[in-house]
Specification:
This protein has 65 residues and is mainly beta. It has 1 helix and 4 strands, in the order ββββα.
């Protein structure tokens, strides 16, 4: 995690992820935003936003866009 922002039941986390897809050998190196909703002390919802084009290219063994 790089940064946390909160507003009551809503928490946004800015994260950096880097991994290699084993089947293709392609590397993903990206930043994501994860939007968590907490209700009654439990996770009620998670939405995340990522570089979908980069992830799909890595899974299909294509060069990074």
């Amino acid at each position: 995690p790089l940064r946390f922002l909160d507003s009551g039941e809503e928490v946004i986390v800015h994260v950096h992820l880097a991994y290699t897809v084993k089947t293709t050998g392609q590397r993903v190196d990206e930043e994501q935003l994860q939007w968590w909703t907490i209700k009654g002390g439990k996770i009620a919802r998670l939405r995340h936003f990522e570089d979908t084009a980069q992830v799909m290219a890595a899974w299909h063994g294509k060069p990074r866009p």
